[in-house]
Design brief:
Uridine Diphospho-n-acetylenolpyruvylglucosamine Reductase, domain 3; Enolase-like, domain 1; alpha+beta; Uridine Diphospho-n-acetylenolpyruvylglucosamine Reductase, domain 2; globular; 11 helices; 4-stranded antiparallel β-sheet
Amino acid sequence: MYAFEYHRPTSVKEAGSLAGQAEDTKFLAGGHTLLPTMKLRLAGPANLIDLGQIAELRGIERTGDTITIGAMMKHAEVANSADVKEAIPALAEMAELIGDPHVRNRGTIGGSVANNDPSADYPAACLALNATIVTNQRKIAADDFFQGIFTTALEEGEIITQISFPIPSRAAYAKFRNPASRYALVGVFVAKHADVVRVTVTGAGSNGVFRVPEMEQALSGNFAAEALDGIAVGEDGMNSDIHADAAYRAHLVGVMARRAVQAAAARG
């Protein structure tokens, strides 16, 4: 690990000011990606800004038809939140599937969304639930936020403060996990909003999380697993690695989509 200056601000304003004044900065949330890459000297920021002591980045609140989650809420806190379980049980269940207890009790929703790992769970949830990512500078629709592997709409020094999720009428997440890392080889999040359905896939795309318009159109007309019969996702654009090739991942998208629809439909 290269030498760096460590900063521990207590407000978003202070964190933003530090980022604007210091050179070569990185924000530290849960640290599950940043710290290992720093230890391997694959990353060497000159300044590390720890967001862990900023109270305004915490909290879960339900207002009308929206659940808003602070960026520094841990995965375990989302999974165990009574408000999240009642409003969007699929989101709580998804959070419970992330990593292992060590990861869930340290990793944060804001850190996961900002990192946009191509196999992470939260990007699929944000995109399917039509979430709004709120920063210290603006509000960004999920459709505009995720821009490719480890790439987002965040600008230099911009901090995610909270994420707002519209409450769907039905939703579910189906995940085929790597048995070691628990990352998604393929994960499909399905959410029904009034007469519109959104279907998103993580773990499979070579360019990160993506939507499946053909499935969305079919399910918007008939929200049942049978509506997906005959719809196949092609191998083009699918990730291929030592864990699964493109053809296998393409097949799993269909399997996981059907499982997610069945689970969502069963909620009544």
